Amino acid sequence: MIGKYERGEALPSIDAAKKIADALEVSLDYLVGEGINAHFDKKTLKRLEEIELLEEEKKHTLFDLIDTYIRDAKARTAYR
Question: Could you tell me what percent of the chain has a pLDDT over 70?
Fold first, then answer.
């Protein structure tokens, strides 16, 4: 059946698609490549959900750290 899905010969039911997404540890959005979460795997989405539960000061500190890593990565890319 998976081969038929891959070849475009059949479409999975929503239940089958959910099982495939769960087995691959991705969201349905990610599986079909559409939606707001299409680029995030389940592990990343779980982390984002957990960040939302942190107290504001800790979130601010974490976002500062993330912003620093992103800025540094962009700078390295720009100077290559």
Answer: 96
Domain residue spans in the chain?
Answer: 1-40, 43-80
Partner residues linked to 26 by β-bridges: 41
User: CA 33 → CA 18, 30, 69, distances in Å?
Assistant: 14, 5, 27
Residues in contact with 32: Cβ distance below 8 Å, sequence separation at least 6, in sequence order: 17, 38
> Does residue 56 have a pLDDT over 90?
yes
Residue 71 makes CB contacts below 8 A (sequence gap 6+) with: none
Greatest distance between any 2 Cα atoms in the chain: 51
Residues in CB range of 40: below 8 A, 6 or more apart: 27, 29, 30, 48
Rounded to two decimals, the pTM is 0.51
